[in-house]
Amino acid sequence: MEGGTVAIPDLGAHCQDPECNQLDFLPFKCDSCRKVFCLDHRSYKSHNCPKSDPQNRKVLVCETCSTSIETTGCDKDDEKALLDRHEKSGDCDPKKKKKPTCAVRRCREVLRFSNTSVCKSCQIKVCLKHRFPDDHSCKPNSSSVTGSASDSKFLIALAKRTVNGGVNDCAKEGRSGTGAAASPPSTPSVKAC
């Protein structure tokens, strides 16, 4: 198929998808079937490439040892069979499994029992260096909103206990039963000279 314009006939190419045939000035050539396609039909899936299987790559991750296993579509093996073969090969070692690390970007601290902190606002596990909300760019989730409501209830109850700038003593209320009109203790106060 010829592409381009009348003035420049070698510019671009027509999409070889049978339903498209769009003139594209920056065409893509499929590395499997060697046909030319426009931006919309450049992927193997979009132009139903018959030779895409050898080019199709997929990576499986072993849950036991965290090893990556690359596979292509030409093997025709299912994922479970590949993982079973890897497990039986002797290369699968649970000691290689990656340990959990701090959730903060660029922090590679391995989280253990003694150095792990769970944020009360966003519920993520971080190392002790990033335990404060400002250190790990905390984004509170919906469960932390209920926690802040209980905090505000506490502050309201504390404010109710304050009477005329002084704090009521709950222990005195409990003994005398009359509240603020309770008598002072019977022991006389002694002033130091």
Automatic annotation (TrEMBL):
<keyword id="KW-0863">Zinc-finger</keyword>
<dbReference type="GO" id="GO:0005737">
    <property type="term" value="C:cytoplasm"/>
</dbReference>
<feature type="region of interest" description="Disordered">
    <location>
        <begin position="173"/>
        <end position="193"/>
    </location>
</feature>
<keyword id="KW-0677">Repeat</keyword>
<protein>
    <recommendedName>
        <fullName>AN1-type domain-containing protein</fullName>
    </recommendedName>
</protein>
<dbReference type="InterPro" id="IPR000058">
    <property type="entry name" value="Znf_AN1"/>
</dbReference>
<dbReference type="Pfam" id="PF01428">
    <property type="entry name" value="zf-AN1"/>
</dbReference>
<dbReference type="InterPro" id="IPR035896">
    <property type="entry name" value="AN1-like_Znf"/>
</dbReference>
<dbReference type="GO" id="GO:0008270">
    <property type="term" value="F:zinc ion binding"/>
</dbReference>
<keyword id="KW-0479">Metal-binding</keyword>
<keyword id="KW-0862">Zinc</keyword>
<feature type="domain" description="AN1-type">
    <location>
        <begin position="96"/>
        <end position="146"/>
    </location>
</feature>
<feature type="domain" description="AN1-type">
    <location>
        <begin position="9"/>
        <end position="57"/>
    </location>
</feature>
<comment type="function">
    <text>May be involved in environmental stress response.</text>
</comment>
